[in-house]
Design brief:
Layout: E1 6-10, E2 22-28, E3 32-39, E4 42-50, H1 53-66, E5 84-90, E6 95-101, H2 102-106, H3 109-126
Antiparallel strand pairs: 1-2, 1-5, 2-3, 3-4, 5-6
Length: 132
């Protein structure tokens, strides 16, 4: 992967009855983070941040370890109240998107580690309680 890579994670749940909304975490290889939250059709948070060097390196190490182009997403129907996560990697020439149900992500240590890191970074930078 190259220096122009962009990774995006979407938590799903924009219209969830609990009102937690959807978080969209977009990270550029250089450490620029764009965090958005949507509840229904309303944008509740939209701000850019710059990650500390060690945070960015840790996050990209997790992303690169996934080998997203070869990652298999969920191939089953979802269950009630289960969010579908989206993982997207764009290297400028090619976009790769993988969709996985939350319960499937919880069974994969590599994906679970990345989602936990994303949640922690969102909470640190947005100063909000993040439900993913």
């Amino acid at each position: 992967m190259g220096s122009n890579d962009t990774f995006q994670f979407c938590s799903g749940g924009r219209h969830h009855y609990g009102g937690f909304g959807e978080w969209i975490f977009t990270l550029e290889r250089g450490g620029r983070l764009h965090a958005e939250q949507f509840v229904g059709d309303k944008k509740k948070h939209d701000k850019a941040y710059t990650l500390a060097k060690d945070e960015n390196e840790k996050c990209w190490a997790c992303i690169d370890a996934l080998a997203l182009p070869a990652l298999k997403g969920s191939d089953r129907a979802g269950v009630p109240d289960e969010a579908q996560y989206r993982f997207l990697l764009d290297d400028g020439a090619k976009k790769v998107e993988v969709k996985a149900w939350a319960n499937d992500v919880d069974k994969r240590p590599d994906l679970k580690k990345l989602v936990s890191l994303i949640k922690a970074l969102l909470e640190k930078y947005t100063k909000k309680d993040v439900v993913i």
